[in-house]
Design a protein that fits this description.
By secondary structure, the protein is α+β, with helices and mostly antiparallel strands. The chain has five helices and four strands; from the N terminus they run αααββαββα.
Length: about 120
């Protein structure tokens, strides 16, 4: 199956599942009325739910820690994605959080960022 065929099939099933959800019918009744195998409907419901859960992109917020330890927002998530294409970044993982920091961050700022991440 080509990429285009897969994309088309995916769209068909999204529409079908949307129709099922709006119908108010049971899975069995909807499949019977639409000539769809129950196992196929269940497969696609599960697949699309899994894809939706795993494809969520985390939102990023770039912050600036100043010398007096105050924190302010510098960029929105869309601005960060654009700027990261031009800068090298360091990824910091701490206490279940991940933060991308520009390579030119000062050691003092980096220490403050890690301190703030540990406190969250």
């Amino acid at each position: 199956m080509t990429r285009e065929e897969r994309a088309s099939n995916l769209q068909v099933w999204k529409l079908r599942i949307s129709g099922f959800n709006e119908s108010g019918l049971t899975q069995e009744k909807w499949c019977e009325e639409n000539g769809i195998k129950l196992s196929a409907l269940r497969y696609w419901i599960k697949k699309l739910r899994y894809d939706e859960m795993t494809n969520n992109t985390p939102e990023w917020l770039r912050v600036n820690v100043t010398a007096d330890n105050s924190i302010s927002m510098l960029e929105t998530p869309s601005e960060i994605q654009t700027s990261h294409q031009h800068l090298g970044c360091i990824s910091i993982r701490c206490e279940g959080l991940t933060l991308d920091v520009p390579m030119d961050v000062s050691p003092m700022q980096l220490a403050n960022i890690v301190r703030v991440m540990r406190q969250s």
